[in-house]
Known about the structure:
The structure holds two protein chains of two kinds.
Chain A: E1 5-9, H1 13-25, E2 29-33, H2 36-45, E3 50-54, H3 62-72, E4 77-82, H4 86-95, E5 99-103, H5 107-122, E6 131-134, E7 137-140, E8 145-148, E9 151-153, H6 157-167, E10 172-175, H7 176-183, H8 195-212, E11 221-224, E12 228-231
Parallel strand pairs in A: 1-2, 1-3, 3-4, 4-5
Antiparallel strand pairs in A: 6-7, 7-8, 8-9, 10-12, 11-12
Chain B: H1 11-40, H2 46-60, H3 62-80, H4 92-141, H5 145-160, E1 164-169, E2 177-181, E3 193-198, E4 207-212, E5 225-234, E6 237-247, H6 255-320, H7 328-359, E7 368-370, H8 372-386, E8 390-394, E9 402-404, H9 406-423, E10 427-434, E11 439-445, H10 475-488, E12 492-497, E13 503-509, H11 535-538
Parallel strand pairs in B: 3-5, 8-10
Antiparallel strand pairs in B: 1-2, 1-6, 3-4, 5-6, 7-9, 10-11, 11-13, 12-13
Helix pairs in contact in B: 1-2, 1-3, 2-3, 2-4, 3-4, 4-5, 4-6, 5-6, 6-7, 7-10, 8-9, 9-10
Amino acid sequence: MSGPSLLIVEDEDTARRSLADYLQRQGYGVDQASSAADAMRLWDAHRADLVLLDLGLPDRDGIEVIHRIRREATTPIIILSARGDERDKIDGLEAGADDYLTKPYATDELNARIRAVLRRVGGPDSDSPGCLRLGPIELDIVRREVRVAGESVHLTPREYELLKVMLSHRGRVLTKARLLRAVWGVAYADESAYIHVYVNRLRRKLTAAAAAGGATLDGLIETEPGIGYRIADA
Amino acid sequence: MKVLWVRAGSPRAARWLVIAAASGGAVAAASVAIAIVGLFGATHAAPVYLLAVVAVGMRWGTVPAVGTSVAAFLAYDFFFVQPLYTFTINNPDEWLNLLLLLAVALVIGRLVASQAMHAAQVAERAREAQALYGISRALAETHTVEEAAPIVLHRLAADTAMDRIWFAVGPAPIDEQTIADTNPGVPLPVPAWQVVLQRPPGEAEVRWIRSHVATTAVRRRTDRAVVYRVRVEASGEALGSVWALRSRDERQPDRAETRILSAAADQLGQAVVRDRVEFEKTNAEIARRSDAVKTSLLDSASHDLRTPLATIRAAAGSMLDDSIAWTDADRREAFEAIDSEAERMGRLVRNLLDLSRIEGGALKPELEPCDLDDIVGPVVKRARGTTAKHIDMDLPDTLPPVLADQVFLGQVAANLLENAIRHGGEDIRVRAVPLQDWVELTVEDNGRGVPDAALPRLFDKYFQAGPPSEKRRGMGIGMTVVGGLTRAMGGEVQASRSSIGGLRVTVRLRPAPMPDPTDGDAALSENAADAQPGTTVRSR
């Protein structure tokens, strides 16, 4: 098998087959499961490099599959879910999924997401030790300094922590609750109303600095309406 | 004199009244007459007795007046007719005098009493009429019993001198729900017995009857108060009760008060029936309209779904036809058609889903502060990728965040843009400005717009844009969703003629309250450990 191996968990036969067909042609090795039990069996037999998981499975909740995989590995998981199931998506991301796609999705979008999460896991870490990067953003953990396109940016402690968490999760979707937990603590996970004010304040500072340095932050930290933030993996 | 409260108009009470009034009157008259004779040596004290009869008649009515006449006759005989201090009469002249005195007393007593009664009745009727007029007006000026009842009860309490009145609806006292009370908040009494107004059908006299209350509730002392109940009925159906409380030391409701209470109960009963009819009428209308909406939606939805389906089937079918040699360019064109039509169907299904949630009331927005450019910006960017039309966007950095649901807001923006792209001209403008109490987002185009008359109804559920033959063509559903989602977020939506020629849709949302700027976060600190866990986040 040439490319990375994928496990597709989807109970709808036609959808699963055409997806598997497409991905095989893209050069991936593909395992197919139509139920949670199938998925577990295939996961045990052959650890895939990435799992595409439909949450609506006939036998068990897809979230359980995520929990099971997360107990054993950090293998990237992308949730496939219908629109309107925002709660499901959030639950899946909270359970440890890396990203989600809303059905019906375009194949090029799917491709881009798969490549992004695989790059995060498999690709060589371009960060030098003690330094996190995202596009033109550099965060020096040791010196607690942030630079965008070479321009120094002055951040408040919380903005700094927020950026650090984001930069540590490139190629992933972070829920608002997760960001709150990471920056403010567990007790604040439900107070999602204002996270966005802080994120936007941070984004403005970074964007201003990027503009001054002749760079752009377009698409690096994107709002996922109702879910949280998608961090690019540039 | 005090009426025993047990039963109004009982013979025992009346008898006591007569005896008390008559003997009182006679004794008073005798004392005055003796005083006059003793002091002034007057020989004829008879008129003093007549005065007593008049006084008693005016105050207590015919029977006491007649009693007083008889008592006066005896007293005069006893004190002033020879031989004095006996009831014997020697002189036949005196007989005549005495009998004349009695006759005159009787006639005057009756006349005075009936006159007084008449005057009292007139005053009573005037009071009743006034009270009933007030109640009728309260009922006429309000729309529902809930609105009218507090006004009616306060009037009623004043007009009937009750300490407290409350109105409850329900088929039986145990099921009754209090809908108005002159002393709201004060616990209702749980008496061992109550006095119920018996209202037999027809002309028969109404009566207050004491009855025991069967209840399992823990009884509170009613503080020497009597609970009166007037049943509220309409067409023989029990609808509820008007309850009233009056101190046990007070008399029982008099005839006028009883009539007012009784009439008020009837009026409230009619109002309850009126409300019920109104409610049923509204429900029927809602059902009728929602049927019309469903039909209209089904019509447009099936049309809108069938159009892309037809394209998809045609494109896929021709690709499957082996007898035709397709060029790569042909094939690509067919697949692009399938792709874009499938996307169109996806948008329609999304809107239908939202619409059914709006209709079903299942739409619960998660309101949080959102920056418009954060949500609307990406939508505009995506829309630019699907059209050759020019979309100009101006969402200044200085806009305050709005209180919105991110998903709803995204959908509102997407629908407005899709509508402008499909029905508008070549130029589309997206703008946002902060107002006093709102942040205003406008999407406008330079197309042919919508007729002025149709503008106010653009977001209506039953509105069909264009002539009937054109039906809604997807526009109606998208706009209905815009209206529903915006209102669900506590915002306003409005359609008007754009200054650049076409349609302008204005969506107003509330600005979000900003976090407290005194938050520790606002102060720049060299040390991240200084950051205290989100005081701001909690302090809203």
